[in-house]
Amino acid sequence: MSMSSLSSSNKPDIRGLSLVELTKAFTAIGEKPFRAKQIFDWIYKNGAMDFDSMSNISSDLRTKLKENFFLSSPKIVEEHISNDGTKKFLFEMADREKVETVIIPTATRATVCVSTQAGCKFGCKFCASGIGGWTRNLTAAEILSEILYAKSKSNLHPLSHIVFMGTGEPLDNYDNLMQAIRLINAKEGLGIAARRITVSTCGVIPKILQLAKEGLQIELAISLHGYNDESRKVLMPVNKKYPMNDLIAACREYIKATKRQITFEYILIKDVTCSPEAVRELGMLLKGMICKMNLIPYNPVSEFDHKMPTRQEMFDFQDSLERAGIHATIRTPRGRDVGAACGQLRHTAQKSAAV
Ligand code: SF4
Question: What is the overall mean pLDDT for the chain?
Fold first, then answer.
């Protein structure tokens, strides 16, 4: 049984256990192994948030479940729906830590953007998530509870894609992230294909190489946000530990092992990240690589003194990248009226609590 599934009461959170782990745990308490699959169906197919809603389970077994396990049900403290249909939730965990989750619907699908840590250690100089520092890792069960809640609220289209791009650095919480991913991917779990799961990292090289060896075709997104070491370390302190050339070499390894294209996230900040020099350097750095670049217009955060470029400047930068051989698209901002950029809602809640 993974430590990541233990709750503060020292009972394992049933939602963080694999079917094999749950079957073993059931055998240990004298229950028939097939009951584990029944409980799995309640959690993953029917979205049960507590033991009492498992109506075809006998009351004796429900009592036994409560004695031996825990089923976390984070409290929703804020819920916002944007004009463009983006839904944003602020969850409060059992220890009152808050994390945010976003559902992004499009014409044909629904994607959930998931947090993996309460706060973040990496302190990127454009991101609200890092401002208050890091408090703790989320457990696999907590990560899954964000996704299962989003699934229950995704009424336009069934939830089909998961992106780990919310608060926290997913690869800094590797074991819990992978436990959650295996349950998302398992047919007895959510049954979502690895190619529909994206892990976004600021560039934790040893973990990128570890992920490459998992045998899963998980989509990898790299927060690049700079065109050489000098420019990147201004915005991303992590670049001091994991410099650009080593990061790009790890990305090439990842592509070789998984046969997947990598997405580079690149923030557009006026007079900082979009320049002819940036295009030249990026063209050389990414030469011959199976990748695409996602250009993200900067979303203002009051603590940082950056500005968004004009629309024309963004289009000109995109054109120049294409001419340099890099396929680039500009991300349409979603949910700006409800503060849907990374960490904004949690940060605002922390600020209000401090007043
Ligand atoms: S961009 Fe990601 S790694 Fe950087 S501070 Fe924000 S959450 Fe952390």
Answer: 90
